[in-house]
Amino acid sequence: LTGEITGLGVTRVLDAIRVVNPEIRFYQASSSEMFGKVQEVPQTESTPFWPRSPYGVAKVYGHWITVNYRESYDLHASSGILFNHESPRRGHEFLPRKVSYNVAKIALGMQDELRLGNLDARRDWGFAGDYVEAMWLMLQQDEPDDYVIATGEAHSVREFCQLAFDHVGLDWEQYVRTDERYLRPSEVDHLLGDATKAKEQLGWAPTLTFEDLVARMVDADLRALGIGGTGSETQRKEAV
């Protein structure tokens, strides 16, 4: 299913553009997961790919077929190699939202633990709103190209948890448990992007810090669960 959608799905859209109207501008959502077993730190547009999951492999296919159609049919097809981009709209199956939502539930006394996999994995986490702006900017350029979109900062899952629990006045070590069920068979250990090209050619830069991103996500889940989400210890206790 991943290959059908993430790889061949891109091909079908590109071919439809070729047939219907080659002037249509196309954005390909490439991914930092293509770097997988990273060959250099930080990762740039020229870093070799070494995907470590079916998703990463399919993204590499989608990325290169976009390059192929761009070069073969002169399409305005650009790829954004986006590193992890999060917001309160992120699905619960993704780690940052899993953390923010369950931290809110723990703060409200609705559960007493959070089970996760590898706490040492490091990711370059940014705000999805910033990254969507980068997508738009790519499509405004005269010439199509490929761009890494990232913050240039890497943080561990452990750091994410600590910030999220700190925001509600709790000690993360009292609630987080490692569960082997959530460990990947082939882990991606350290993703860190270099967005110099996007900054120089698109004029793009992230606006939200990692700390503010975590706080925003926790506050949104606190609100969704029924309180104001200020993050203060006093209001947390009153809500409970």
What are the SSEs and their pairings?
Layout: H1 2-20, E1 25-31, H2 54-73, E2 76-82, E3 85-86, H3 95-107, E4 114-116, E5 122-123, E6 126-127, H4 128-139, E7 146-149, E8 155-156, H5 157-167, E9 176-178, H6 196-202, H7 210-224, H8 233-239
Parallel strand pairs: 1-2, 2-7, 3-6, 4-9
Antiparallel strand pairs: 5-8
Helix pairs in contact: 1-2, 3-5, 3-7, 5-7
Structure report:
There is one protein chain. With 240 residues, this protein is α/β, with parallel strands linked by helices. Helix content is 43%, strand content 13%. It contains eight helices and nine strands. It has helices spanning 2-20, 54-73, 95-107, 128-139, 157-167, 196-202, 210-224, 233-239; strands at residues 25-31, 76-82, 85-86, 114-116, 122-123, 126-127, 146-149, 155-156, 176-178. It has a three-stranded parallel sheet, with helices on both faces. Strands 3-6 form a two-stranded parallel ribbon. Strand 1 (25-31), helix 2 (54-73) and strand 2 form a beta-alpha-beta unit. Helix 1 runs parallel beside helix 2 and helix 3 runs parallel beside helix 5 (157-167). The radius of gyration is 20 Å and the shape is elongated. The termini are far apart. Mean pLDDT is 93; it is low at 229-240.
The strands making up the biggest β-sheet line up spatially as: 1-2-7
Helix content: 40-55%
The helix-strand sequence is: HEHEEHEEEHEEHEHHH
Number of helices: 8
**Which value, in Å, is the CA radius of gyration?**
20 Å
